[in-house]
Design a protein that fits this description.
The complex is a heterotrimer of chains A (160), B (91) and C (133). Chain A is mostly helical. Chain A is 65% helix and 12% strand. Chain A contains 6 helices and 3 strands; from the N terminus they run H-H-H-E-H-E-E-H-H. The model of chain A has no long low-confidence stretch (mean pLDDT 75). In chain C, 74% of the residues lie in helices and 0% in strands. In chain C, helix 1 runs antiparallel to helix 2 (37-63) and helix 2 (37-63) runs antiparallel to helix 3. Chain C is elongated, with a radius of gyration of 20 Å. The chains are: A mainly alpha (160), B mainly alpha (91), C mainly alpha (133).
Chain lengths: 160, 91, 133
């Protein structure tokens, strides 16, 4: 299993090197091969964990989640721009807390970053399984507490 | 890539220059918050914001002067900016 | 050399650049106008991410399929990952220090840390709120 992890990490690191260097002469490719061995040796247990199951399904579901996330990001930006540019500045900030159903660190990280990027809310802190979220007005906080996004993230990481 | 014209005598390089100037102005406006803004956290955000703007500025400069080296600098600057923010919030 | 296609690419590039610059400027204005630290985080964490992302996408459209575009693509992915993370890190640090969010009204309050209310009244009265020791 270790050798498989090492090989996969090595290939990814080497491909990354070739893409970024964009030189294909002997010196640059050789340096890339040597450096990739060192980096892959140092970090072969970071990228892939053998305890994980259903990696392919999770990846595909995450890719399917991305368009919705981008749409939400655009909405968030229009929202913030409107609030920033309107003369009366309709903001009413508050902090809300809620308990999450998500278990893994990865899923919580994804949820926290999604909350930060969606309209009107920023994740402040996660203590055990309680999220502290700063909302810029009442409506985004209410939308968040309905938990639609949490269910989506739970679906991706197969925890529902 | 030079000589591609948008219309008339306005080339793409001019558009990039205008964008670069816009970014510089926005950076200076943010710098006000960095100098004046109450407390250390406003200053940290200001530095972070200016750093992110600088990334785009570096890429634009790379296109204006047609020097691909600037893209590597922009990548490194992005990573440094991120690490600096994390380090500043952990101190 | 097909003139129309090049012009179309350029027009798309310029449009994306303008929209990105608009969001970036809106984010900067919000950064200046919002009353406290946490609201400013909204402006910077969102508008800057999308504004700069759009400007970089415009440059990818302009550059075409080259190695340079791959680099800019990695840059966009990195900004999309790193910007919310650093926003979150700064917000967490400020919250741990005990910086109180600015409030418009006195309602029942959900935060758990019991900061003294006199301090929060003070920062609400001050025009720029968010006062740190």
């Amino acid at each position: 299993m270790r050798i498989k992890q090492f090989a996969a990490t090595y290939l990814i690191v080497l491909a990354f090197w070739l893409l970024l260097s964009a030189h294909f002469d002997r010196f640059h490719v050789g340096a890339g091969v040597v450096c990739s061995v060192i980096v892959a040796y140092a970090s072969h247990d970071l990228l892939f964990k053998d305890t994980e199951k259903h990696r392919l399904t999770k990846t595909l579901r995450f890719i399917a989640y991305l368009p919705w996330l981008i749409y939400q990001i655009v909405l968030a930006n229009i929202d913030v721009a409107k609030r920033a540019l309107s003369p009366s500045m309709p903001i009413d900030p508050r902090v809300v807390t809620f308990k999450t159903i998500l278990k893994s660190d990865m899923a919580r990280t994804a949820l926290a970053n999604s909350i930060t990027l969606t309209p009107g809310t920023v994740t402040i802190d996660i203590v055990d399984d309680v999220f502290y979220v700063h909302a810029i007005a009442k409506e985004p906080a209410d939308d968040l507490l309905k938990g639609a996004m949490e269910r989506k993230v739970a679906h991706i990481f197969m925890e529902d | 890539m030079t000589g591609t014209e948008l219309f008339g005598t306005i080339g793409m390089v001019d558009v990039f220059l205008a964008m670069a100037i816009t970014i510089v102005i926005a950076s200076f406006v943010s710098l006000y918050r960095g100098i004046e803004g109450p407390g250390i956290f406003n200053r940290i955000i200001a530095v972070n914001v200016i750093g992110t703007k600088t990334i785009v500025l570096l890429v634009l400069i790379g296109f204006i002067y047609e020097r691909p080296d600037f893209f590597d600098i922009a990548l490194l600057y992005a990573i440094l900016n991120f690490i600096m923010t994390i380090a500043a919030t952990r101190y | 050399m097909s003139d129309t296609i090049i012009n179309l690419t350029n027009v798309i590039t310029v449009l994306l650049l303008l929209v990105g610059a608009f969001f970036m400027l809106a984010g900067t204005i919000g950064f200046l106008r919002f009353p406290d630290f946490y609201s400013r985080m909204h402006a910077t964490g969102k508008c800057d991410t999308l504004g700069e992302g759009l400007m970089l996408v415009a440059l990818i459209v302009y550059g075409g399929a080259t190695f340079v575009s791959v680099k800019i693509l990695f840059l966009i992915l990195f900004i999309l990952l790193a910007n919310p993370t650093s926003t979150h890190a700064i917000a967490k640090a400020a919250y741990d220090v005990g910086l109180e969010p600015w409030r418009k009204l006195d309602e029942e309050v959900a935060w758990l840390n019991t900061g003294d209310t006199g301090n929060s009244d003070e920062s609400r009265a001050g025009e720029d709120g968010g006062e740190v020791r």
